[in-house]
Amino acid sequence: MNANQLAEFGARHIARGIGRVSNLVIDKAKGSWLWTVEGKKYLDFTTGIGVTSTGHCHPKVVKAVQEQAAKLNHAQVNIFYHKPMLDLIEKLKAVMPSSKLDTFFFWNSGAEAVEAAVKLARHSTKKQNIIVFQGSYHGRTIGTMSLTTSKTIYKANYGPLMPGVYVAPYPYCFNCPIYKKLPDKYNINNCCNDPIDQIEILLKQQTAPQETAAMLIEPILGEGGYVSPPNNFYKELKKLCEKNDILLITDEVQCGYGRTGKMFAIEHFGVVPDIMVMAKGIASGFPLSGIVSRKELMDKQPPGSMGGTYAGNVVSCAAAIATLEVFEEENLLRNVDLRSSQILSLLDKKLKPLLPPQVNLDIRGLGLMIGIEFKGVPYGFASEVAKESLEKQDLIILTTSIYETIRLIPALNITEEEVVIGIKKLCKAVEMVVKRLP
To answer: Distance (Å, rounded) from C-alpha 311 to C-alpha 289?
Structure first.
């Protein structure tokens, strides 16, 4: 079958509920580049939605997987220990935000890990309710759909969902009504503190502290728009949790593992969570997720209450060990800082001049988790930019949130030259879409 026939076959036989940004049939990938079955080459600024952080098919990760698969490829976690998991824990302990986060549970996907965190919070506190934040994305299982608020498409018509979930505002300064009215007084560097005030009201009106097990939050909003909070937000949130005996869970599935220039995004804000969730970039494309917490919390769960057939798969753990070794050997966090500064500078110089004066542009993000929001453009503008990038510039990018926002998620080892190529392609796509504006 040729590429079109393969795509048509997929459309007939793969569940329609899977959203897809292209009909490309990918044959191979290396670093920041993808090739289709027809041999066409694309620059990838999506990394599988933040998964292949060391680039596609990093040779060190590939070698580790090949060697492990030939030695042992399944050691069921409820039956055995296996050495790759134990070695991975030893390496992970060294990069945790705090030495207090010392006990791990591994699963397969981000959604499963979020559910594991909720199970731990409910069981250890003997309380039920969970507070989540507006714009959050935590998964698409029944439980995590209940916690997700970034878009209605993820959970519409799938109810009834898990009860005991309450939603608080996330500090989104670019779309904050207080900022809009008083932009000279309040901004990301001087928060109005309204989100914290609203959480206190929530605890008085909707879910009492004695019923609230945890607050679950993405340190940087992912599907909600790649939004960073004001610097003081997390310290105030942590104080509120401690005051009310509520656990703080950080969902680092998309923003963790070096994506923001630190191993975990919460480190930017000087706060240590009670439970931390990780997945995506943890194993460079192999299915692995996990939670980490304090031993005294984890030890409250009875043996048998946690587990799973493929939980902490031995091959995925080998890939995760190799991933951490790549971080160390190639100094990826340093590269993230360098390439982040480069991208932000190029966008400021090259992108802004392309837009008409009525368009308000917000370029934001930490590290290589960069959002570009356009305000004052027609609905669908960001999607048109992504489509133009794909079809005319051979650049793969994604949109995010309910607003007109592009997100850039390149590999953490992307080169200076690849950044220049990618931003040039993006700017050309924006220029062409702007020319078609009414």
So the answer is: 8
